[in-house]
Amino acid sequence: MAETKSQQSRLLVTLTALFAAFCGLYLLIGGAWLVVLGGSWYYPIAGLVMLGVTVMLFRGKRAALWLYAALLLATMIWGVWEVGFDFWALTPRSDILVFFGIWLILPFVWRRLPVPSAGAVGALVVALLISGGMLTWAGFNDPQEVNGTLSADATPAAPISTVADGDWPAYGRNQEGQRFSPLKQINADNVKNLKEAWVFRTGDLKQPNDPGEITNEVTPIKVGDTLFLCTAHQRLFALDAATGKEKWHFDPQLNADPSFQHVTCRGVSYHEAKADNAPADVVADCPRRIILPVNDGRLFAVNADNGKLCETFANKGILNLQTNMPVTTPGMYEPTSPPIITDKTIVIAGAVTDNFSTREPSGVIRGFDVNTGKLLWAFDPGAKDPNAIPSDEHHFTLNSPNSWAPAAYDAKLDLVYLPMGVTTPDIWGGNRTPEQERYASSIVALNATTGKLAWSYQTVHHDLWDMDMPSQPTLADIEVNGKTVPVIYAPAKTGNIFVLDRRNGELVVPAPEKPVPQGAAKGDYVTKTQPFSDLSFRPKKDLTGADMWGATMFDQLVCRVIFHQLRYEGIFTPPSEQGTLVFPGNLGMFEWGRYLRRSEPSGGYRQPDGAAFRLKTDPARARQSDGAAERCERLWYRVRRAAAVRRPVRRNAEPVPVAVRPAVQTAGLGIYLRPGSENQRSGMEKTYRYSAGQPAVPDAG
């Protein structure tokens, strides 16, 4: 019996020592690789210390606990030196060490170490208590929180258009994109008491023939007592807003297949045809209509009262947006966002299939008669004459920059503001024409009646990072130097928020041009400067190895090695064959639903996300694909895109964003930053649900 217990003791000590040996060797070898790449010396030193602990454990010496206590305390001090008292950053540096330390102080473990050492157990207990105290302190102190002030005396911004308090008739409540409801019934005191009133299930689920990306991104609209929403497959539902009961539904019979890049509907638009702005037959046929964009390149006008097609619109209620397109393959041109509706015009743009070919459909923006569907004007961003109307002999321009995000509209100025994308391929610009560069990654203001350019402002020059303008701009009238100025807020993926006079595109908040990293891939070029707005949520500092995250010190070490293998010189580091870290990545600090404006006080909320990506140009593979001319013509550089690192929470080497709810004075004067719930939970969830949607903040706070 005694011999059996002795064997069990030796086995327990041996297994403990083997675990320590694994940790030591991993940290030593991986750490040495990291040091060669220019990274932290902590890991190989910690590996050597861990191997010393291993030797002592094999020899049965309790002094191993002394050495381990020193390693644990040194690790905590090093962690605080690198990242401060940031709980989510300290945790991966210490979690394995803390758990292993707890194992070592268990009586049935340390008592099996026959060679005594005075105070060893007590020393490790003290080290664990200190470590636990530091982590606890970090858990209650968020170093990323910024607490500025918003002036309570700020002059309320004047409303641009009038919408009934209880209505939400457009994607952003109004076409100015303000996304703010004045209703006050729900407030900070009673929000906890909210109960489910009703649930409606559309039954629209992913089908076997769908593409890999199918998303539910809809923002419903509400007019009177009816709620209108579209599903991923663009099925349109009208619901009783009070009860959730279905009034009617309409199915456009979208025939999606795996060749579609995605299946998405962000929303629909609403229009009332009245006697003073529409022919009598239109008013009689469809006095209230829903305009529904469909991913196969069709636009439907549906009677808002009964769900029937508006026979007087286009071809019995259906408008073919593929007309005069240079490529008409279904799914390559996809209108995914609701169009702008004026008294006269439907202004619609659309997405194209990203990085599939350089023979993409045009990103043309078009204006159609709101009553009849007749083409009134076109603005083709990649054409020498953007306003040239196509004919049977003349099609729109291949691969023009597109505008996939929702637009905004100022009825007083009759200007529509379009956030523009970039020509495919996203990260290679060596073959772009001057016309393709002209309006890429810009805000373009067009006259909604004529389609003529009023002004444009480019937020990224020669965009090689897929930094297209991703979200609906927001319009506001603010006071600047005692004068009311009509402005447009344009959130960019870079984290910049460009604030412009929406009459002429002149900057209201400065955005000076600053030098950026040079050295483009062979055959391409980069511009010497890029604009940096003074109102910005872009990262304040460049990434370092300390910003890499993992669930443990082991995968954190891997992330640090990967970081030092990549080219990274800060924001706008050019893509490379070596592999480039792009931060913020092309998910953007802002995505398609990222700004909410309040009227009192004069301020707004933004929801930025921080996620980094790595991009690698691969000319050899691209040349091998030249045989498929229709698919890869002139696409010399392919993209390998993978998640790399993130910050400021430093929690994962996955593309998990940081979700925050910042508030900003509309003139850019005050700011606070508060991490949101996604920030607190994303590191530990098995599945992170990335949120790119719109923030919701009640008027009552």
UniProtKB/TrEMBL annotation:
Keyword Hydrolase: no
Family to which this protein belongs: Belongs to the bacterial PQQ dehydrogenase family.
EC number: 1.1.5.2
Cell membrane found in the keyword field: yes
Highest taxon of source: Bacteria
Bilayer disposition of the protein: Multi-pass membrane protein
Essential cofactor(s): pyrroloquinoline quinone
SUPFAM superfamilies per record: Quinoprotein alcohol dehydrogenase-like
GO cellular component assignments: outer membrane-bounded periplasmic space; plasma membrane
GO MF entries: quinone binding; quinoprotein glucose dehydrogenase activity
Protein name (Swiss-Prot/TrEMBL): Glucose dehydrogenase
Transmembrane feature ranges: 12-35, 41-58, 65-81, 118-140
Domain Pyrrolo-quinoline quinone repeat: 168-593
Record's keyword terms, sorted: Cell membrane, Membrane, Oxidoreductase, PQQ, Transmembrane, Transmembrane helix
Alphabetical list of Pfam families matching this protein: PQQ (PF01011)
Subcellular localization(s) per the UniProt record: Cell membrane
InterPro entries according to UniProt: PQQ_b-propeller_rpt, PQQ_mDH, PQQ_rpt_dom, Quinoprotein_ADH-like_sf, Quinoprotein_DH_CS
Region feature Disordered, mapped onto this chain: 675-701
